[in-house]
Amino acid sequence: MELTNIPHLASSSNFFFSSCSRCSCRGRRTEKAVIAVSVAGIRCGADSACSEITEQQNLDSLPGSKNSRCYRRRDFAAAALIPFLLPRVDMASAAESYDASIIQNGARNVLSKVKAAGVLRLVFHDAGTFDVAEKSGGMNGSIIYEVDRPENAGLSKSLKILQKAKEGIDQIQKVSWADLIAVAGAEAVALCGGPEIPVRLGRLDSSIADPVGKLPEETLDAVALKTSFRNKGFSTQEMVVLSGAHTIGGKGFGNPNVFDNSYFKVLLEKPRPTSSGMPIGLPTDWALTEDDECLRWINIYAEDQAKFFADFQDAYTKLVNSGASWRTA
Ligand code: HEM
């Protein structure tokens, strides 16, 4: 049986709609995806044998939202379990057609400026395990198995936020954790006024945790930081520009909800500033100022926000593609 169905995103609204081959279908969906949809319990009302999504749905009515309808909770809970029940390749290659705007809107619906920093940090903690030489780690969604590690303290909150988005998106088309985190991080940056970063889709999720000890500790000096980033394939310039992510969040660099070049400006202040008597930033942030090569980039980005945005966009793109395995279909 050839089933056909691609969910469409209505332009200029959050409405998703689709129909099935027995009704008035658009596009195609593989058997695997249909199985997943079927497990989620959403079937064509016109034909009980058909496993297509048929309802118009606004993301507000999808799981996790305050408007979710009770009778659907069980279905959504089942859908949330799917990623853990099916092999990773099946999940990631399930949808032949992949609508980026569905993922983007799903992420946007759960994000706010206050939540943006945690979500952006999630990107680094998933991708930053990459080790070029060992060909291990990287942007593979393995962070879901690593939240109990000390370096990931506080990140389960951000993951739960994205879990809500994932449950909703998965009802329409399967999304890997790696793709969702990459897209959500870019959305977080844009939401706070940073650059709009296009994100390539199609990452496969790992089914196991990455090796431990790959993320840089906050006590490292500049030399050790450079080595840590070089092992992930990043130059000193890329390390400095990515560190500019600390401009948002609770580390005291300017407005916590505004993605701008305050991070670099504050690093150049003398004497070293404090915020309400508390030190600003991490030891690693200040370590950058003690290295000539890093300092040169700090000066450049402090003077030129447009250059910071452009270089951040490139480095972010490289970060979210680090060590990724891609769908071939
Ligand atoms: C240079 C090496 C890095 C180290 C040692 C480091 C470490 C840390 C630590 C310890 C925190 C504080 C967590 C907390 O408040 O509990 C933090 C916050 C954060 N990190 Fe990093 N980080 C690094 C690089 C990066 C990169 C490359 C990114 C993203 C591209 C990033 C994004 C963030 C964000 C957005 C926050 C704020 C989170 C919040 O306030 O909720 N970090 N980082």
TrEMBL record:
Residues 116-329 form the Plant heme peroxidase family profile domain. Its EC number is 1.11.1.11. GO terms for molecular function: heme binding; L-ascorbate peroxidase activity; metal ion binding; peroxidase activity. One of its GO terms (biological process) is seed maturation. SUPFAM superfamilies: Heme-dependent peroxidases (SSF48113). The keyword Iron applies. Its cofactor is heme b. It catalyses: L-ascorbate + H2O2 = L-dehydroascorbate + 2 H2O. Keywords: Calcium, Heme, Hydrogen peroxide, Iron, Metal-binding, Oxidoreductase, Peroxidase, Potassium. It comes from the Eukaryota. Signal peptide: none annotated. InterPro entries: Ccp1-like, Haem_peroxidase, Haem_peroxidase_sf, Peroxidase_I, Peroxidases_AS, Peroxidases_heam-ligand_BS. The keyword Ligase does not apply. Pfam families: peroxidase. Belongs to the peroxidase family. Ascorbate peroxidase subfamily. This is L-ascorbate peroxidase. The lineage of its organism: Eukaryota, Viridiplantae, Streptophyta, Embryophyta, Tracheophyta.
